[in-house]
Structure formats: C-alpha cells, structure tokens
Design brief:
The chain has 291 residues and is of the alpha/beta class. It folds into 2 domains: 2-166, Rossmann fold (3-Layer(aba) Sandwich), CATH 3.40.50; 170-281, Cytochrome-c3 hydrogenase, C-terminal domain (Cytochrome-c3 Hydrogenase, Chain A, domain 2). Helices cover 25% and strands 14% of the residues. A hairpin with a 2-residue loop joins β9 (114-115) and β10 (118-119). α1 (13-19) crosses α6. It binds iron/sulfur cluster (SF4) (2 copies). One iron/sulfur cluster is lined by residues 172-173, 176, 178-179, 182, 197-199, 204, 206-207, 225, 231.
C-alpha cells in the first residue's frame, strides 16, 4: 500500500514513534513510502510539490496553520491535492487531530477537522475518509496496526471523533496496575514509586482519557501510570490542560469524574471506600516486613 506522509508544524515525534514499532521491518514489507520525512522514500519533497500520482493513504502530521508554506507551496494546496487522491486520510498525533501543543494561543492553528473539540468545516469533504490517531506521540502499535487494518480493508469501527475503537474504546485506567489504590482512594505522594493512585491529588486523567497505554505498553515495557507519573490526557481534544500534575477539586472532591460515573454515585462509593483502612496499601510494597 502506498503511503504519503505530510508534516505541517510538527516535532517529528510521531515519525520517530513509528520507528519504535517492534515489528517495523516486517511491517514495512506491506507498505511503500512515496514520501516520509525520515525513511527512504520513492520521491523527494520537491517532486511531491510538483505532483505525483498513486497516493492510497495520506498521513497528516502536525498542527495546521493558516497560510503555512511548506517549502514552496501552501500546505493547504498539498493537503487538498493529495487528500482528494487518497482513499483514506490518517491524522497522526494530537496536533494533526485536535491542534495539540502548537495550537495553544490560537493564531489560526488547528487539527485537520478539529480545533480542540470544535468540529471545523475547512476540510469537510475529507471527513468520511479520515481516521484520527491522537496521542503525543501516537503509540507505534496504534499507527502500524491501523494502517494494516486499512491495507486489508477490514472493518474499522470509529468513535465520534473518528478514533478507531480497537485502540481508543478503552480508558488509560483500564489495565493500570494501580486500580486497587483507586478503589480505596489512596493517592500516590511520591512520583515514581509503585504505590498509590494519582487520581485524587496528582492530576491523573486516566479514568477519562481514551487510549491503550496500559494494554499495549510503551516499548513493550511500561506506561506513565505504571511508572508512577499521571496520565496527562494526551489523546483528548483538550490536551494540554494547565496544572497537569494536580487534581482540580470542588470542596475536596475531584472536579472531573471517571468517564460515565455520575457524581452522586461516585460520592456514595467514595464514602464506603474511605471507611476501609487496608494496611497493605498504606506502606511501600518493597518495605521489609520483618523490619
Ligand atoms: S493512576 Fe490513573 S490510571 Fe492508574 S488507577 Fe489511578 S486514576 Fe487510574
Ligand atoms: S498515559 Fe496518558 S498522557 Fe501518557 S501517552 Fe498514554 S494517553 Fe498520553
């Protein structure tokens, strides 16, 4: 399958992330790069500007900006030309999907179809063929896996933001090793340690962030929350928020509830959970019990 990768305002994090896909060499045998900013490609960028044929999937990376010139041509012109040609468009990373970090402060910057959670109409004719793969950066398995599904022309169910449900139907909370601490409302007070849930004080957004980070571990090894750092919500339209390492609260209760949990139900459950004091959750797991 023939792929064209077009970067707008990007840090190349998504392009690098793909290189970390464990089965990368084998995976690449099914794909042909017409252009990629880091990988050997069939065409140079000036040739892409002149015009090529045969693009099957257009991969859009980075934040879009009004009037952006890419080398010699307006980026919009390239997007329209190759977006029309491609069967599918994939927005890779949060910047290309929702605007992300480079869109902070406005200035006519956005994702392809969204500015945060606002649905824009500038590229509406591409909406039906677009797949959104947010993440800062995207997980390599999510990008490689989605492109393989597209290549096989298998069904690819999407959510309302056009994220593939295979990877984004879950929350980061799903699979986190700290779930027991969440249940009993015990927060983590020292970043990087094994104990505690970071929802209550330390800003973890895992309970309302869609993604597979605790099901498909980064580098096959770990995730933020497993390592002891809160999930920063990087796959969501409102990333990045302010005050990422603390939990906003109203009257001592986290302002934002876990996905789908009514506040009243949460308060009832929290009251019961707090009534327990379970010793094994209150001391470091590696502490010498004999000491
Ligand atoms: S640290 Fe975050 S992801 Fe893990 S259990 Fe707590 S809220 Fe869920
Ligand atoms: S744990 Fe959260 S912030 Fe970290 S990569 Fe996954 S979704 Fe993004």
């Amino acid at each position: 399958m023939r792929l064209l990768w077009l970067s707008a305002l990007a840090c190349n994090g998504n392009a690098h992330s793909l290189l970390n896909y464990p089965g990368f060499q084998e995976w690449q045998e099914d794909f042909h790069w017409l252009y990629h900013p880091l990988l050997p490609s069939r065409y140079t960028f000036p040739e892409i500007e002149k015009g090529i044929e045969g693009v099957e999937v257009l991969i859009v990376d980075g934040t879009l900006e009004e009037g952006l010139i890419k080398n010699r041509l307006p980026y919009r012109e390239l997007l329209l030309r190759y977006g029309d040609q491609a069967e599918r468009i994939v927005t890779v990373g949060t910047c290309a999907t929702f605007g992300g970090i480079f869109a902070q402060g406005g200035g006519g910057r956005s994702g392809l179809h969204f500015e945060g959670d606002e649905h824009l109409k500038g590229y509406e004719r591409f909406w039906e063929k677009t797949v959104s793969l947010p993440g800062c950066p995207v997980q390599p398995e999510v990008l490689a896996g989605t492109l393989s599904i597209i290549r096989r022309r298998d069904p690819l169910p999407l959510d309302t933001l056009h994220r593939p449900k295979y990877f984004y139907a879950y929350t980061i909370h799903d699979g986190c090793t700290r779930n027991e601490y969440f249940e009993y409302k015990i927060d983590e007070h020292h970043f990087g340690t094994l104990e505690g849930c970071m929802f209550y004080d330390h800003g973890c957004q895992g309970t309302f962030t869609h993604g597979s980070c605790n099901k498909i571990l980064w580098n096959g090894v770990n995730s933020k929350t497993r390592a002891g750092t809160p999930c920063l919500g990087c796959t969501e339209p409102d990333f990045p928020r302010e005050g990422l390492w603390r939990t906003p609260k109203h009257m001592g209760i986290p302002a934002r509830m876990p996905l789908g949990v009514p506040r009243r139900a949460y308060l009832g459950l929290a009251g019961i959970a707090k009534a327990f004091r379970i010793e094994r959750f209150t001391r470091p797991l590696m502490e010498d019990e004999g000491g």
